[in-house]
Design brief:
Distance between the termini: 96 Å
Structural class: mainly beta
Number of helices: 1
Strand content: 35-45%
Number of domains: 5
Shape: elongated
Number of strands: 57
């Protein structure tokens, strides 16, 4: 671009008219920094007028772009044209801690201009002015910048930070320029708390009592505290191993940590206690609760609620998970948070055994029936549909959907509080661990040895707590308290290479509960229980056409025939019985060692007349294997541990009336056998 000055005297105006003439070279994006009209016309203000167009256009036409056009060699248009700017707003520390100084900065850069913006900016917090306006100063290159003073008054919570720019003669104003990384998160001052802990004194050897230490919110940066043990009625060296002053560190993101204390084994006649005390928190941190009391219990008290069945995957994938909670008492159980929170938490372990994650809360006020259940299930739970596992008058739908899935083999804990920072061994009701999930907070979410992981198996399986004498086994050792059952035992379930034949049987708060109001007997009291017609062994090969099972792994008949067991039940509950089924809890089945029978539950004929001693007869109602005719889950190889067999009751069984039932078992392998059922009814 070149400039030339042309001056002519205008006779009519008696003045000299001078104008700049612009010649465009073949080059785009040129600037005119000033234009002057001499001879009394004054100056056209604004400066830095820009031609945004393609050079080479006719001077009699218009060059597009901006607020100005070039016409006949003269500039025409409004003076004071403006450019836009871009803004980058940042925080010196996000997230921050209440009381920490935070500086907010804006860098304002021009768009399509080399001029540095001027004017003022106003920082805002959630739309309200954050201090007074600040004058921009020159920054790097052609940018301008402004920063707030260090602000220590931000309240705990989220703050949406924006900046308004006033504009100037060259640049347009702009409002609500957002901060990168909005919102500014202000966390409370780090505050440590330690919870109480408890452990039954080991009979021999040693045990580990776990104390939990928590921060009110996750650590923003490395935060530390010291701890040490002190005697109470428990004496260091005799009852436990003392811990001298020790540093406990919370890295960024940490919220819950554990302190292990070794408890010495031996006999005990009473409970004993000692303390763990926190001290010397790192700069800026405080201690809300400094002392936790550890109770070495002399005797073990059964938990009022247990995790009775669970799995972390299923045929529908990783989300086909569930956790069944069992009321381990003979009275209804009302959920009440022991820490003043909202209920009971189901928590899972996370990667690296870091902060546990609460994935479900059984709300305060929930009533779990005596010996009944509460069911929490995952996002793809498949056993609660129309043909799902039976429960009451419908299927075993979840009482509550988990907020997050268990994922592959995470440890699971049940606590009598929903407050993550309050969970501890003192309020832990039950826990189940898997595989190598040990150490750190994973130890809070397991009892004793862990279970072999299922590794995302899509088999129809579950881990079930072993029932003993009509109650659930609970020795505080997961490795011996649970059993993995599968409807397809010839297929490995993760690390469980030889599953036990059985079936998942999730129960919700409407499911039939353990029934103790039926009085059992034999259908023919004139003969012993092991003789016909009370028990009948048929050695002829049997093809199961009623429930479609086979001994497996290939299809075919039960070549060793069947075993039929018959019993009579008197309703002595004082009320009608509307639902009656039997859960197989101890039956010799697959895999069976040599000399032990391999028996499979199959569906019996619905009703038949059986001759008894003396020439009379009684009507016997056959049981049906649940989950075959309404496949949920299908049991192609017959029923085993945790399978259920139901009795069809056309009308309720009135109080004082009796019913004769029979179970049919396909025989895959002969030998000694066990057959034990739990009665469930409504």
């Amino acid at each position: 671009m070149t400039f030339s000055l042309i001056c002519r005297r205008h006779l009519a105006w008696f003045t000299l008219l001078c104008v700049f003439v612009v010649t465009l070279n073949v080059q785009a994006q040129q600037q005119i920094t000033q234009s002057v009209v001499a001879g009394g016309g004054g100056s056209s203000t604004g400066g830095a007028f820009r031609v945004d167009g393609t050079a080479g256009q006719s001077v009699t036409g218009a060059i597009s772009g901006g607020a100005f056009s070039l016409s006949s060699g003269f500039w025409a248009g409004a003076a004071g044209g403006t450019f836009n700017t871009t803004a980058v707003v940042s925080s010196s520390l996000n997230p921050s801690i209440s009381g920490q100084g935070v500086i907010f900065t804006i860098v304002l850069s021009p768009v399509a201009s080399v001029i540095i913006p001027t004017g003022t900016v106003q920082f805002k917090d959630n739309g309200a002015n954050l201090g007074a306006g600040i004058v921009l100063s020159a920054g790097a290159g052609n940018s301008a910048t402004a920063s707030t003073p260090s602000i220590t008054s931000l309240t705990v919570g989220n703050h949406t930070i924006t900046v308004d720019y006033s504009g100037d003669g060259n640049f347009a104003a702009s409002n609500a320029n957002p901060m990168t990384g909005n919102p500014q998160v202000v966390n409370p001052v780090p505050s440590f708390s330690i919870n109480n802990a408890s452990l039954v004194k080991p009979a021999s050897g040693t045990g580990t009592m776990l104390f939990t230490v928590s921060l009110a919110t996750p650590a923003v940066s490395l935060t530390t505290v010291h701890y040490a043990t002190a005697d109470g009625s428990a004496v260091a060296g005799t009852d436990y191993v003392s811990t001298p002053d020790t540093l406990l560190s919370f890295s960024a993101g940490d919220q819950v940590k554990t302190i292990p204390v070794t408890i010495n084994g031996g006999s005990a006649v009473s409970n004993k206690t000692f303390t763990v005390t926190l001290s010397n928190p790192s700069a800026g941190a405080t201690i809300a609760n400094a002392t936790g009391t550890g109770t070495i219990r002399s005797t073990r008290t059964p938990s009022k609620a247990l995790i009775s069945e669970l799995r972390s995957s299923g045929p529908a994938g990783p989300g086909d998970d569930f956790v069944e909670v069992y009321n381990n008492s003979d009275v209804p159980l009302t959920v009440t948070d022991t820490n003043g929170g909202t209920g009971w938490a189901i928590a899972k372990s996370t990667s690296g055994c870091g902060n546990p994650q609460v994935i479900g809360v059984i709300p305060n006020g929930t009533l779990i029936p005596a010996r009944g259940h509460f069911l929490l299930a995952g996002s793809a739970y498949s056993l609660g549909g129309v043909n799902g596992y039976p429960a009451g008058s419908g299927s075993a739908v979840a009482d509550l959907t988990l907020a997050a899935d268990i994922e592959n083999d995470s440890n699971i804990g049940l606590f009598s509080t929903a407050n993550l920072t309050a969970i501890s061994t003192a309020n832990r009701l039950d826990a189940v661990g898997f595989g190598g999930n040990t150490g750190g907070t994973c130890d809070l979410l397991r009892e004793g040895g862990t279970l072999p992981p299922a590794v995302g198996s899509t088999s129809q399986y579950s881990f079930v707590r072993i029932p003993t004498l009509g109650t659930s086994q609970d020795t505080d050792n997961n490795a011996v308290d649970f059993l993995l059952v599968s409807t397809t035992p010839f297929t490995a379930v993760g690390s469980n290479l030889t599953p036990t034949l059985g079936a998942p049987g999730p129960e919700n708060s409407f499911s039939p509960t353990l029934f103790s109001g039926l009085t059992s007997g034999i259908i023919d009291p004139s003969v012993v229980a092991t003789a016909a017609p009370n028990r009948v062994r048929n050695t002829s090969p049997y093809t199961d056409t009623l429930s479609g099972t086979s001994p497996g792994p290939a299809a075919g008949p039960y070549t060793l025939g069947t075993l039929v067991i018959r019993r009579s039940y008197l309703n002595s509950t004082g009320a009608p019985v509307t639902r009656l089924r039997f859960r197989l809890i101890d039956v010799t089945g697959y895999p069976a060692p040599a000399g032990v029978a391999d028996l499979r539950g199959v569906t019996s004929p619905a009703s038949q007349s059986v001759t008894i001693t003396g020439g009379g007869s009684v009507t016997v109602i056959g049981t049906s294997l649940e989950g075959v005719s309404t496949p949920a889950p299908s049991q192609p190889f017959g029923g085993g541990i945790n399978s259920t067999m139901t009795v069809s009751l056309p009308t309720p069984l009135a109080n004082g009336n009796s019913i004769n039932v029979q179970w049919m078992l396909g025989v895959r392998q002969a030998g000694t056998f066990r057959f034990f059922v739990l009665i469930e009814g409504l």
